[in-house]
Amino acid sequence: DGGITQSPKYLFRKEGQNVTLSCEQNLNHDAMYWYRQDPGQGLRLIYYSQIVNDFQKGDIAEGYSVSREKKESFPLTVTSAQKNPTAFYLCATRTGELHHGGTEAFFGQGTRLTVV
Amino acid sequence: AQTVTQSQPEMSVQEAETVTLSCTYDTSESDYYLFWYKQPPSRQMILVIRQEAYKQQNATENRFSVNFQKAAKSFSLKISDSQLGDAAMYFCAYRHKTGANNLFFGTGTRLTVIP
C-alpha cells in the first residue's frame, strides 16, 4: 500500500540519550517534514526537506538533526541537547507544485516519545 | 512565522445538528492555501477540506464546507448533519504558495458530538 510509515509508534528514551525516529514513504513525494505536537500548541515545524541531500531548519530545530540520503526516507534524531523531548512527532510528505498543485500534505501515524 | 488562531478550544454539537468552527489567520500574501485537518483519537491527521485563496468560491466536501472571508482573514468550517465519527480535534492550517511550503497550524478545537 502507498503511504507514510513512522516507526516506532512508542519510544522511550533515557535522559542523555540520542534516539532516532524513522519516517519512510513510498508516495514518490519530493518534500518531507517533521512536526512536533504538544498539548494545546498545535503542530510546530522542526525540519523539512524539499529534495534529496538538502534540508532546512524549521521553527524549533534546536536539539534535533535530520538526514535525507534517499527520497523515501527522512529520519529525525532527537539529541540529548533537546531539553524537553517528550511529545508526539508527526512526519508529513507533499508533492511538488507541478503535481496536482502540490497542495496537500499527507501525514504518518506518528511516534510518541517519552523521556524516562 | 504565520499566525493561525483558533479561539474555541472546545465545542460540542448534538448529533445531526450543524456546528461551525472558527479560524483566523495573519498573512501579507495574496495567494496561499488554507486547510482544515481532523485528528481523531488515533492521532492520524486527516485532511478535511482545502481552499485556495485566489478562488472566490467556498470549498465544499460532502457535509463539510467553509466560509472563506479573505478580507477579514477568516476561514471557518461548517459541519452539517454531525455524526458521532466527527468527534475529534480539528486544526486549521495555512500554507504559502511558494517557498518552504510547510503548514502553520492553529492550536486546535476539540469537537464533541452528543448522541
Explain this structure.
The complex is a heterodimer of chains A (116) and B (115). Chain A contains no helices and eleven strands. The radius of gyration of chain A is 14 Å and the shape is globular. In chain A, the strands form two sheets. In chain A, strands 2, 4, 5, 6, 9, 10 and 11 form a seven-stranded mixed sheet that branches. In chain A, strand 4 (31-37) and strand 5 (43-51) form a beta hairpin. By secondary structure, chain A is mainly β. Chain A starts with a strand and ends with a strand. Chain B is an all-beta fold. In chain B, strands 2, 5, 6, 10, 11 and 12 form a six-stranded mixed sheet that branches. In chain B, strand 8 (64-69) and strand 9 form a beta hairpin. Chain B is globular and about 45 Å long. The model of chain B has no long low-confidence stretch (mean pLDDT 93). At the A-B interface, strand 4, strand 5 and strand 9 of A face strand 6 of B.
Helix percent of chain A reads under 10%
What proportion strand of chain A? over 45%
Mean pLDDT of chain A: 90
Radius of gyration of chain A: 14 Å
Enumerate how many helices of chain B there are, as a single number: 0
Q: Could you name the ranges of chain B where pLDDT drops below 50 across 5 or more consecutive residues?
A: none
- Distance between the terminal alpha carbons of chain A, to the nearest Å? 35 Å
Radius of gyration of chain B: 14 Å
Largest interface: A-B, 26 and 23 residues
Q: What structural category do the secondary elements of chain B indicate?
A: mainly beta
Unreliable runs of chain A? none
Based on Cα principal axes, name the global outline of chain B. globular
Distance from N terminus to C terminus of chain B (CA atoms, Å) equals 39 Å
Helix content of chain B: under 10%
Describe the main β-sheet of chain A briefly.
7 strands, mixed
Look at the helices and sheets of chain A and give the structural class.
Answer: mainly beta
Major sheet size, sense and barrel closure of chain B: 6 strands, mixed
